[in-house]
């Protein structure tokens, strides 16, 4: 199951549509689980820190958590240069 | 690609790269009895999913097991990915063969070469399914090795590669087939122009026998324009295959419309092939004269 967690306000219709798209793309069920508020830090967020600090939701083994935000994410300094962060992933 | 694999000893906890499998950690080195023989086995656990693989220590080098790339190697990979040096080979057979070699024994540079080569090729035309799978596979292995080598997350390693392959704010270039043509090396024989026509025909084409070829080459020595020779009725054995091919479509052409188009296509293929054969023979004859 893909669990959608929003960190900003979104139109429920858009979220429903996104769930449908994810379901069609991956063949895995998707639902909007919760609306959370990002922790105290200000924009632009450090994506890695945000993931460590933000609250989580109840999930089961093999579930995927997808956090959505309309806030800007900080560019990252990598060995090959500075990359803009449009998204960030943790694999486990 | 390295010709020899450097010797190294493995101990528990070492991180190694198993070709085509990814980064593994040595879990145990132990003796086991198999069919009455005592062999030393290296047990490795793949970091990605925990899959276990056991390899006899004697075969560790032959299967291409190697240590995780060093920071210098990764920097070389970044420099290579950044450069605009790689031109993909347009011959799919050669490309498949070299890519296979690079994947199994090319090290991290080999992985980068596969990724870069296929990425450049994808700028010319969409990749076929098999090559897209190979690209995904090579990219995944490269990302996990860079992440293991630099001690960064997979996401960071992937973005580091993407930054070089697809620089932000720059459109992907549109390549043309001319860009991929390799300049002929001195002393290298000019390839016979049989390639496209023969490959497209596959087993449909009946090549003349060797004995016939000898007879024809003797005839061709006497005449100046071997291309025209192939069109003359005197050369019966040579035209046998071609006439068969051209005769069939004319029959089909009278029957139905769709049959007609098929027949015309086949006829044009056959004529192309016969022309290509004639051209190559002309070259062989010219070389012999010289």
What would you say this structure looks like, in words?
- The complex is a heterodimer of chains A (92) and B (290).
- With 92 residues, chain A is an alpha/beta fold.
- Chain A has a domain at 1-40 and 61-71.
- Chain A has two helices and five strands, in the order E-H-E-H-E-E-E.
- Chain A is globular.
- Chain B is of the alpha+beta class.
- Chain B has three domains: 15-67, Thrombin, subunit H, CATH 2.40.10.170; 71-180, Up-down Bundle (Methane Monooxygenase Hydroxylase, Chain G, domain 1); 195-289, no CATH class.
- Chain B contains ten helices and five strands; from the N terminus they run βββββαααααααααα.
- Chain B has helices at 71-82, 92-105, 107-122, 129-150, 154-165, 195-201, 210-222, 226-229, 236-255, 257-289, and strands at residues 15-18, 22-34, 37-46, 52-56, 66-67.
- Chain B has a five-stranded antiparallel sheet with strand order 4-3-2-1-5.
- In chain B, helix 1 (71-82) packs parallel to helix 3.
- Chain B starts with 14 loop residues before the first strand and ends with a helix.
- Classes of the chains: A alpha/beta (92), B alpha+beta (290).
- Chains A and B meet through loops of A and helix 1 and helix 5 of B.
